[in-house]
Specification:
The chain has 309 residues and is of the alpha/beta class. The protein is 35% helix and 22% strand.
Length: 309
């Protein structure tokens, strides 16, 4: 187990991977008070037809859950952060380690998922130095219902949208959810790490845009499948926490990538958020403050952890 200090200085144990047959693929999980889900996810990865190195970043859970993971799975590489680094920051700890240790492929995977045995096998068949790949994702509670079957960044409205229809054969799209995607190390080294300014939500929107702008294709592989406990890792989308970060970060992205979106995106986003804020206020719901604070902080350019401050 490795400790990530609060000042973000990191100590790494460098592994000798020269003759390690598992050095092709590393799978990164971020854990935040989700030990039981993480354990179930790890067990599904260990049943995979493709061997991989598993990395778990414990993102300042109330208890040091990396200790329990180490006890159950001594071969899993763990990191413990003393502060919540957010989705991007937590994953970046694992990505940096994977790059330093010369893994060829790096996959991000939500800890509240389980994968089918051949998922990584199918993804690796299509992964390339100019192509990021993602599986079809189904609801854990409704295994026949698609949660993510590809997606697009809507340039008119300014938001990412999921497809939920069955498809035959691989296809390209303009948005990959951060729940799971896999890329060759060359892409990570070329495009860079996830942007930590968002803290929570829309890091994947930002990264999808960066990939597209740099000529990287985004591909979905329907034969590769996982099952997602939607909301377990990120919380209730109707909570003040989620409303704030979704609102703020969506506007931050529109400001960051002005040339990517149509002018309607900014207008639509501000108007729709304002309407929802007013509806909640009229109903006496306190969540209206989260919409207000999200819009205010985005227009001020506030990033990182700043919920309702």
């Amino acid at each position: 187990m490795l400790i990530v200090k609060t000042n973000l200085e990191k100590r790494y144990v460098m592994l000798d991977l020269e003759n390690n047959k598992e050095s092709e693929l590393v799978v990164i999980l971020v854990n935040y008070n989700g030990l039981s889900d993480t354990i179930e996810c790890i067990r599904s990865i260990k049943q995979s037809s493709v061997k991989s190195k598993i990395v778990v970043v414990d993102n300042a859970s109330k208890q040091n859950e990396s200790l329990a993971i180490n006890e159950l799975f001594p071969d899993v590489q763990t990191f413990r952060s003393e502060q919540n680094l957010g989705f991007a920051g937590g994953n970046n700890v694992g990505i940096k380690w994977a790059l330093e240790n010369k893994f060829k492929y790096i996959a991000l995977l939500n800890n509240d998922t389980i994968i089918e045995r051949n998922m990584f096998e199918k993804l690796l068949q299509h992964a390339a130095r100019d192509c990021a790949v993602a599986p079809f994702m189904y609801y854990y509670s409704s295994p026949q219902k698609i949660w993510f079957g590809g997606g697009e960044v809507n340039k008119i409205k300014g938001n990412p949208e999921h497809f939920d229809k069955e498809k035959d054969g691989c296809f390209r799209c303009s948005f990959l959810t951060g729940c799971c995607f896999l890329m060759h190390r060359d892409i990570w080294e070329s495009i860079g790490l996830l942007d930590e300014l968002y803290f929570m939500y829309h890091e994947d929107t930002d990264y999808s845009i960066r990939l597209i702008q740099n000529g990287i294709s985004l591909m979905v592989v329907p034969e590769a499948k996982l099952y997602h406990k939607v909301g377990k890792s990120s919380g209730d989308r109707q909570s003040a926490f989620s409303i704030y970060y979704n609102t703020r970060n969506r506007i931050l992205i529109l400001r960051k990538y002005k040339s990517f979106f149509y002018p309607t995106a900014y207008i639509f986003t501000l108007m729709s958020r304002t309407m929802r804020m007013l509806m909640l206020a009229l109903k006496g719901r306190s969540e209206w403050k989260a919409f207000y604070s999200g819009m205010r902080d985005a227009l001020k350019g506030m990033t990182g952890i700043s919920w309702l401050n």
